[in-house]
Amino acid sequence: MSSTNTPRDFSAVPVLDYGLLQSEATQFLEQLRHALVNVGFLYLSNHTVSQDNIDLVIDYIPKLFALPQNAKDDIKMSNSEHFLGYSRFGAEFTKGSVDQREQFDFATKHISRWKKQGDPEHHRLWGSPQWPDEKLIPGFRDVFELYLEQVDTLSQGFTRLMAEAFGLGPDGLSQFYDTPDLMQHRAKIVKYPVVNGPSDQGVGPHYDAGFLTFLLQASDHQGLQVQNFAGEWIDVPPIPGTFVVNLGKALEFITQGLARATSHRVLSPKGSTPRYSIPFFQNIGLDKKLTEHVLHFPPEVLAVRDARGKVAATDAVNFSEFDNEPSGKVNLIGRVKSHPDVAERHYPELFRQIFPSGRPAFGSAY
Ligand SMILES: O=C(O)CCC(=O)C(=O)O
Ligand SMILES: [Fe+2]
Q1: Where is the Fe2OG dioxygenase domain (predicted)?
Q2: Among all ligands shown, which has an atom nearest to the Cα of 207?
Q3: Least enclosed by CB within 10 Å: which of 56, 182, 202, 286?
Q4: Can you tell me which atom of ligand 1 is nearest the CA of 213?
Q5: Of 111-115, 214-218, 241-245, which gets the smallest average pLDDT?
Q6: Predicted ipTM of the assembly
Q7: Is residue 126 domain-resident?
Q8: Average pLDDT of span 166-177
């Protein structure tokens, strides 16, 4: 489906063919601009991540969750000052209800810059992931590290195209990123089990916080939905060979609302098998302050936004405040709120500022 005439109240998420770039770059960029402005979600087909490697990753996922509980708990997130590791089923809430999912947080390779007390605390947010015991799941780490590297490369290329689609030139967003050695991106491997209770909340309505998310739907299940302008929930079914790309609040903020962050949620799977997914969250530089970078868009690009009109209210709960704090600090505060047990252990002062009356029963996912 072409996204060129995406209606304001879209009823399906557009599919963009990355291969079109070779032959019809102008057409691709036009479709991209419409998807960014009018939908905030798109499928990307014919992308550059190796399908053989994706297939290997997909094969590993059930094996990862089938590890003995003690092996999973050996790499639990509360071990990690970087908020990386395993979270049991039901550890997080969104919109007052429990998110019925189990997950591992991993990240791209990165050597932490944080050396000692006195360095900015948010530099400590990034660092080495915890990996499961190689003997229990041989080869998983290598396969998944390669996957992360390739999605990272795709996300860098995509960012340049997005800048072009906004009329800023390919380097128009590069000010938000540091050199690759100073960057780290995060990905979660998520399992949504079949549930029998009254709730079907896999994850409640929310916005992603950053710039871009590259989501691999790793099993053949319905469940992901996005909310259109009219407030209707639209299915985003898995399409083999594609990524779902969606935009976060930070991108919406710096583009002055041109790029839409879209409210989305996941319903628990029906049937007998779990749904699996892998969202990859692209970060911006740890010390970047969004308010310090004002972008100037050409009039023809602003006209696309104006034709769209104002974004209506959605069901999503989270609204990050991007004031004068560096992006790493904004992220760190978000992590403290979603994983108070980790924060209490590794960031006791910040924990006390955010939770003066002690640890809440649950973390908020968004
Ligand atoms: O699992 C999915 O398909 C989406 C997950 C999601 O939106 C998130 O973790 O932010
Ligand atoms: Fe999300």
Answers
A1: 179-284
A2: 2
A3: 182
A4: 10
A5: 111-115
A6: 0.99
A7: yes
A8: 97
